[in-house]
Prior knowledge:
The chain is α+β, with helices and mostly antiparallel strands and 459 residues long. The protein is 17% helix and 32% strand. The chain has eight helices and 22 strands.
Amino acid sequence: MxxxxxxxxxxxxxxxxxxxxxxxxxAKPHAEHSAGRAEKKHSGHAEKAAGTAGKAGHEAKxxxxxxxxxxxxxxxxxxxxxxxxxxxxxTGKWTDTHSEELKRGISIRLGxxxxxxxxxxxxxxxxxxxxxxxxxxxxxxxxLLRRVSFVDAPGHETLxxxxxxxxxxxxxxxxxxxxxxxxxxxxTEEHLMAIKIAGIENLIVAQNKIDLVDKAQALENxxxxxxxxxxxxxKNVPIIPIAATFSTNLDMLIEAIERHIPTPxxxxxxxxxxxxxxxxxxxxPGTTPEKIVGGIVGGxxxxxKVKVGDEIAISPGxxxxxxxxxxxxxxxxxxxxxxxxxxxxxxxxxxxxPTLTQNDRMRGQVITNPGSLxxxxxxxxxxxxxFERLLAGTEKKIATNDTVVxxxxxxxxxxxxxxMQGNKINISLKGKAVVLPKQKIAISTKDSGRWRLVAxxxx
Length: 459
Ligand SMILES: Nc1nc2c(ncn2[C@@H]2O[C@H](COP(=O)(O)OP(=O)(O)OP(=O)(O)O)[C@@H](O)[C@H]2O)c(=O)[nH]1
Ligand SMILES: [Mg+2]
Ligand SMILES: [Zn+2]
């Protein structure tokens, strides 16, 4: 099994700055909430294993009425700009749970958390939008709008492969941009490129950390944001000023999500197509063989449906061979499901040897009904299109013999350029990938020791 890019990458040594405080800022909206935040942050640990499938079967009795989220919204943007803080403000879950993440203060893996949005019929304007069942303004019962899964991407430059993989699951995105820094920062732009490639049209900018800037700085930053959006062809994108750690303007953001990121119309009739973004083994060391639970694969269904008991094929599989297994359980954040549909994150318990699913080893795999997919390939010919960045670097074009990383769906696969004619390049992959017709492929090359997204191609 090929090593995931992430295993090859190491998170940089950059020590993350300690939490900024509102002390240095001008406005200090809702500063009184900050104490509670620190507390809640720790309660996040308890939810650790939970994730999407997590405690499959523990908290969820069969038929417990678990509701799968309607769609996934990505949290993207430069390192430290507040993606995880905003995910927490919206969902109440701190998604950095791994010891490395807590130690370094940066996100390393994709984080997952669900929120339910409501609208109060008594209140007007943005104030009517909330993530609470009871309106915080007037105390009346609010009407449920929908359930949303958030995919919290890491912003560190070495973790682009992880971010790209997450982008394949996103139906819309929130680009988090810190107002107290020049815009764009490198990953602000790179993440925007990535969601563009992933075909994400519905975008909102959360202009974060407004507690740390004055009005003039906020306006200047807003202009820079508008220029960036224009460059990538994003029109009518709402820019919502927020302070994630104080939940400032959270209602405005929820309103923007409800208005600008509609639930897509999913195709549930075609054969199953699910992208695996992570996988794990829920057995504790020393579990007796008869109690061992099969490997769990988590991700999102992009078309079709799956039921408990269905036979599934996992491609490209292990060592280039497709794997077939049966779905033993299905779950979402809220508990067990009998059937899963496109939209919010789900996890499937399978009959796989759990060692195969340890530590996200199945990330990038495509899950389908057996026989419904094109064969996986190890050679590709691609017509590439390059990006021209606002932040001009020493951009170099792809050349013969270059090593590249292709991201296809949630799969990152290393390849070597074996030949080229103009922008048409031939690539030999170090492994296999499932490439669907017209699928967009992100191409990264190594530049001064790190992978940079430079181009894309349409299969
Ligand atoms: N003052 C202030 N600080 C904030 C705000 N939002 C986030 N921060 C702080 O900024 C730092 C980074 O926040 P995170 O939420 O971890 O940022 P991130 O974008 O998830 O970072 P990566 O996942 O590593 O890319 C933390 O110390 C937060 O407390 C805000 O609105 N105001
Ligand atoms: Mg984070
Ligand atoms: Zn109300």
